[in-house]
Amino acid sequence: MKILGIVGSPHRKIGNTYKIVERMLKETEKMGAETEIVLLSDLEINYCAGCATCLREGECPQKDDVKEIQEKMLAADGIVLGSPVYILHVTAQMKTFFDRCVSLGHRPCLQGKYGASVSVFAGVGSVEDVADYMNRILLGWGATPVGKVCGYAVIPGGLSQNVLDQAAQVGRELVQAIKEKRKPSEDWLNTKTKDQLKRLILRNKDFFKADYEYWKDKGWID
Questions:
Q1: pLDDT, tens digit, for every residue of 148-195?
Q2: Which strands sit side by side in the sheet containing 144-152, from one edge to the other?
Q3: Domain boundaries, the chain
Q4: N or C: which end of the chain has fewer CB within 10 A?
């Protein structure tokens, strides 16, 4: 069992987001998981150019570290997304990564995988909204979110023990969901987004060629 953490905090390992993700993954290790944490700030992740090549041809033409992260996600059983709240949303690092993963939203290849989200704020904005947003991203990629952890801290190391305990609990839930192959309470196949994408792809199948072939192979369209 492999669980991957993806941290979008520019504070890297000293940040509170990392500390929560680390605590969660340490708990999963106690239950037999192999873990890894990817720090987006340490990697080369270019902006999405909006060229739609990934949707037409199936692969992004940019040569940076995004493909390697995506391959790690495909190899994992569980994925944890972590970002502090910056200006009411995820960090620029995390949003840039999400933009570059647009093909995963059109061709959700993480079905059968499970995930969770982590967010921290200093009291401004809605940490719950940011955590929920990241779980919606996971759902859009086809994964099943099992929980979230929201923390409050102004300085590094300012997290309460209660938040760290919550992280451990969500880690246990994540492992249990993977082991049980838990049926999702919300399945991507039954979402409004799926219906919207289906209409979009069918109306523009000559443009979204890679998407159309993927959906056809999956039996989602005739």
A1: 999 999 888 889 999 999 999 999 999 999 999 998 777 777 788 889
A2: 34-39, 2-7, 78-84, 114-121, 144-152
A3: 2-183, 191-221
A4: C
